[in-house]
Amino acid sequence: xxxxxxxxxxxxRSDVDIYKKIIDYLNTDNKILTEHIGDYSLSxxxxxxxxxxxxRNRDIDWLKESDLVVADTSNPSLGVGYxxxxxxxxxxxxxxxxxxxxxxxxxxxxxxxxxxxxxxxSDVDEVLEILKRKIG
Length: 136
Ligand SMILES: O=c1[nH]c(=O)n([C@H]2C[C@H](O)[C@@H](COP(=O)(O)O)O2)cc1CO
Description:
This is Putative 2'-deoxynucleoside 5'-phosphate N-hydrolase 1. With about 140 residues, the chain is of the alpha/beta class. It has a single domain (about 1-135), classed as Rossmann fold, CATH 3.40.50. It contains five helices and five strands, in the order βαβαβαβαβα. The protein has a five-stranded parallel beta sheet, sandwiched between helices. The longest helix is centred in the middle third of the chain and has 14 residues, at about 50-65. The chain is globular, with a radius of gyration of 14 Å. 5-hydroxymethyluridine-2'-deoxy-5'-monophosphate (5HU) binds near residues 6, 10 and 78. 5-hydroxymethyluridine-2'-deoxy-5'-monophosphate binds near residues 7, 46, 59 and 77.
């Protein structure tokens, strides 16, 4: 299955360690289209060697191509919010992962009936357990 993983870049990189573990776990039996999100060397500046319109159009193409969107919303990110709204608009299945110790999830996500697979976790073991249960 092709999975679009969404996680914060310019919104802040403090959760990169968790993104990397999620991506590595999911990549064993699936294809993660957005592996760069778990790259430790990618800073809060993002993929600055690329034009913003290139990044946006590439990511929307990947989102459309994916079978499933998995988003970590713990670190608020405009880009992740945009991707989630886009996924809702085109009817893509979405699994949301949210570290309850880190932040309160936006009402725009929690308040949308479309997002009916929101999973709260408190550490990396728990997030991997959730993915194992849901995806395998
Ligand atoms: O360089 C980038 N590359 C990229 O793929 N993105 C996408 C993927 C992430 O799921 C999301 C992160 O958005 P933000 O940078 O606003 O936190 O946007 C975002 C940026 C920078 O905004």
